[in-house]
Amino acid sequence: MIEPDYLAAVRESYDTVAAAYAERVKSPAELDPLSRAMLAAFAEVVRTADHGPVADLGCGPGKVTAHLAALGVSAFGVDLSPKMIELARQAHPALRFTVGSMTGLALPDGELGGILAYYSTHHTPPELLPVVFAEFHRTLAPGGHLMMAGYVGDDVRLRPAQAYGGHPVSYESHLQPPDRLASLLGEAGFVLTARLLQEPAGEVRRSIATFLARKPEHP
Description:
Order of helices and strands: HHEHEHEEHEEEEEHEE
Protein name: Class I SAM-dependent methyltransferase
Keywords: Methyltransferase, Transferase
Oligomer: single chain
Number of strands: 11
Distance between the termini: 26 Å
GO biological process, one term: methylation
Helix content: 25-40%
CATH architecture: 3-Layer(aba) Sandwich
Low-confidence stretches: none
InterPro entries: Methyltransf_25, SAM-dependent_MTases_sf
Domain Methyltransferase: 54-144
Largest sheet: 7 strands, mixed
């Protein structure tokens, strides 16, 4: 599969900011109560279903992957940035982390019991989201579960020049309406089971949407 052009900018940018990102981004224990509750609910759902391991896609330095593991989930991390994966392996040597892209996962069909895409799909151009969601669907086992969370907006495209303490970046972020994301998940074959919209408050200046979805056991 030919790699989409935008991935090079994402990879280079996160290699550049990896150390600063790991220092600045909160651990799951420091998140707001609703975010912690949704992660806990996802962990319980995939543990109960027991359809296979959970892939934390866009895992960064592995903080959320380790949190899932602490909740009793068989979890591993995948990230586009080799530097992020290096940091994740150093911080959590007992867990598995691999370099890869959610546009083309090196996994067999139906391998996963769960997928977590936690603030990791927003760099994908909107027209390519169906490719990513189709890959989620392909790699999930029938009855497997998806949790996807991130900032949302009304077709907002952000092009920051710097991030995480002034480091140069060249990626773009695309904030889509929650209803559009829900519709795309449905078109990819998922059944939406829960949706949470958190309005801006305190340090958070943008709306956050969290989706829980399931791959049906039968087509």
